[in-house]
Amino acid sequence: MQHSSTRVLLVEDNPGDAFLVRELLQEAGEEFWLEHVHSLQAALKQLSQDSFEAILLDLSLPDASGLEGIQTITQAAPEIPVVVMTGLADEGVARTAVREGAQDYLVKGRADGVGLARAVRYAIERALRERERRLRELVEAQKRFLADAAHELRAPLTAIRGNLELLLRFPQMQAEERKEALHEAEAEAARLERLIHDLLSLARGEAGLGFEFSEVPLHEVVLEAWNEARHFGKGHGFELDGLEPAWVQGQRDRLKQLALIFLENAVKYTPPEGHIRLSLRCQDQSVLLRVSDTGPGIPREDLSRIFERFYRVRRPNDPGGSGLGLSIARWIVEGHGGKIWLESELGKGTVACAQLPRILKETPG
Question: Of 91, 169, 173, 246, whose CB count within 10 A is highest?
């Protein structure tokens, strides 16, 4: 094999069709190195052992047919472009396969060597351009993230430095003023610590670091968060509106963090005389966590951006915050295979919802 050869994995159970593909690629006069396997399972094994630049996939395999093959292959090797091959009767399925992730399709018997080689080359080029586009987007996102993070970190650091300079410049200041400056510096240091913790959480998500899953009694985790939230509430009315036993595959600490984010936001934006309600209810295959409040609500135009990093709703007497909480909540929920959304109406309050897949098990009674 020459180093410049294009490595192609051919997944084809028909020996005659496989021979024809090899002959057509040789006819094209280009350097291809072809690895032939006869089944989807053999293809998955080969992909785990070797690297390829393209995959030629028959849509009628003994262990997979139609869209099943393309779905499995694209999940196993999302970065490798796939060109599907089909008989005349399956052309509609082939078009659907392209919508499902294949780069192109060829009808057996219609393609010559040049056309087959061109389809493979174009598929590789399109996949490369797509990777480059995603890389550019990632770089731009990282630049925005760093700029936003620097901006958010600067504010508490400036406040801490200002108070320390004040203490150094005026060593004879009154004890009460000194105490006030120290308290403000301490509060800003705590804010800075929380911000750094939040940034590290988001950085884990950006790096694609997953979660360590185990079986978690979500009702117990939510109750822990609920009891903590009641301590930092200031005159709020708290109501536990149903806490059904529910188990999920997840990371306990992150799930508790999710519940605390919902509850802390509810406390932060609800006036002291307002009410906060939590419920955890089992559905068919999932469990739904809801935290509602009687705060000012969120304008409709802000709801579409509310989960963006550092995004904050502009409102009078805003209690502040990093604008990272709901971004972290989304990362946690999506990392657990769930869905997250907010429902809100101005002047009436907000409901934060997280739906997670649950483990089905019998409960006593």
Answer: 246
